[in-house]
Amino acid sequence: DVATRTGFTSHRNLRETEREKENSMNFTLDLCTPLTLTSLTGVRHKSQGPSVEKCGQMRFITAEAKASAGRLDGKMREKTLTMDTLNPQVKAVEYAVRGPIVLKAGEIERYLEEGGTKPFSEVIKANIGDAHAMGQQPITFLRQVVALCTFPELMDSPSFPEDAKWRARRILQGCGGHSLGSYSASPGVECIRKDIAAYIEQRDEGVPSDWENIYLTTGASDGIMTILRLLVSGKDSSRTGVMIPIPQYPLYSAAISEMDAVQVNYYLDEDNCWALDINELHRAYQAAKQHCQPRVICIINPGNPTGQVQSKKCIEEVLHFAYEENLFVMSDEVYQDNVYAPDCQFHSFKKVLYEMGPEYFSSVELVSFHSTSKGYTGECGFRGGYMEVINMDPEVKAQLVKLLSVRLCPPLAGQAAMDVIVNPPQPEEHTFKQFHQEKSSVLGALAEKAKLTEQILNSVPGIKCNPVQGSMYAFPRIFIPPKAVEEALGMQPDMLYCLRLLEETGICVVPGSGFGQKDRTYHFRMTILPSIEKLNVLLGKVRDFHISFLKEYSGLEWDEI
């Protein structure tokens, strides 16, 4: 009857389900026979003959079976990668620009988005030089060229100017399959390398540049890391020493830690607008020779985080020092378009080296770096950049090319963006007027904000800010009362200050300890990228917070401050 048949079916299904579960949890695969339905399911059919010979079998256990086994013996499989087995050089890496303060800022942002309340309505992230995230508009011509390269069908559109179209066609002709989606040669697209060399010659007023010394990179950071990999070697007292400015951009200290090199600090002169003192270079070099082999000196000009522009005389002294001590020179020049002080001018290390004469220009090993991320374009997300390599040993250069080939090539969209920066519209072209207006507007606004930042910060008791001559940052010195220093306990006092600033005002800046600073001095780095309106709000909040902070920890009233 129906009930009997139904009961039989249910009983049979139950037995089959249990058997299938058992088979799925624990089955064997014979390594001597080809894969068959039997070997994979454990279910034999009459036509398949006798069972397999035991000739070496792999046992497969499902996650369910393993979990059951773990519960039975009370043990679970240990993880292979733990903090104990992690590469110790990775643990030593620190990168303050995206460190604990920024993570906390993200938490607060999410809290506000979910309806939480704070004494402020938004987090203002002044921690990083990300121009577009701060509201800066893209340069129209650059986006037009990259758009045309990305979607060539737009070549037929009358909305795009011919100046942009012919540049895009030229770039695409240098790409495999005329597509931005192809790989390029590891050093970059040839026509772009040639455009960069022509740009450098024009920038340096005729100093020759060989396009075969140009290498496209994934942002300047990629190039800096690559060159450091070539330079770092040795053990114990023969380990490579890397001289870096303090304060410094944390990429350098992070790379040095990751590569297990030796960080050699030379301190910039805060009382002299963060100038580079040649006597300090000699002091740092001689001290380092006691425990490592200094082989390279890094310079950031214009400065990050300090915003200074080095004079020609200073650069000559650095190059002479490198010549005398046989040091490799790495010149980070990504802010070369960001010079605001009327009495300052950007001088490339290469041009100054050339003007020092053949003895220097033919022998000092120099690599200089540039990027799409800064300047007036602020195209951080394209990850475009280049480096120019001077006087590198030919055999070492072959090793450089080998190292670059491992990462195949930089993103082609970034290469295209870099090409527009070095090959912008010329005065005789139709697009020049709009391009020039947009570029001048960005740089003019940055100059205005640099001056505003300096003026307002210097009006606050207990804050001293050097002139922001260039780049995108201010690095003011802040007075932190002894009581606050004591309260900081395990953290740096300026970390305590910046955390309090974030939690009470929504302003996210980076403590100076993340960049390096002289003992018992405290700073923070902030970008000048927010709009004038938002920057005024930001600086006003910093002013009010600092005065409140001083009153809380110094026991002083307003009129005493």
From TrEMBL:
GO BP annotations, alphabetical order: L-alanine catabolic process
Protein name: alanine transaminase
Keyword Transferase tagged: yes
Lineage: Eukaryota, Metazoa, Chordata, Craniata, Vertebrata
Keywords annotated in UniProt: Aminotransferase, Pyridoxal phosphate, Transferase
InterPro entries, per database record: ALAT1/2-like, Aminotransferase_I/II_large, PyrdxlP-dep_Trfase, PyrdxlP-dep_Trfase_major, PyrdxlP-dep_Trfase_small
Catalytic activity reported: L-alanine + 2-oxoglutarate = pyruvate + L-glutamate
Gene3D superfamilies linked: 1.10.287.1970, Aspartate Aminotransferase, domain 1 (3.90.1150.10), Type I PLP-dependent aspartate aminotransferase-like (Major domain) (3.40.640.10)
Function: Catalyzes the reversible transamination between alanine and 2-oxoglutarate to form pyruvate and glutamate.
Swiss-Prot/TrEMBL cofactor(s): pyridoxal 5'-phosphate
GO cellular component: cytoplasm
Domain of life: Eukaryota
EC number per UniProt: 2.6.1.2
Annotated family: Belongs to the class-I pyridoxal-phosphate-dependent aminotransferase family. Alanine aminotransferase subfamily.
Enzyme class: transferase
GO terms, molecular function: L-alanine:2-oxoglutarate aminotransferase activity; pyridoxal phosphate binding
Listed PANTHER family: ALANINE AMINOTRANSFERASE, ALANINE AMINOTRANSFERASE 2
Subunit structure: Homodimer.
Pfam families according to UniProt: Aminotran_1_2
Stretches assigned to the Aminotransferase class I/classII large domain: 178-539
Transmembrane segments: none
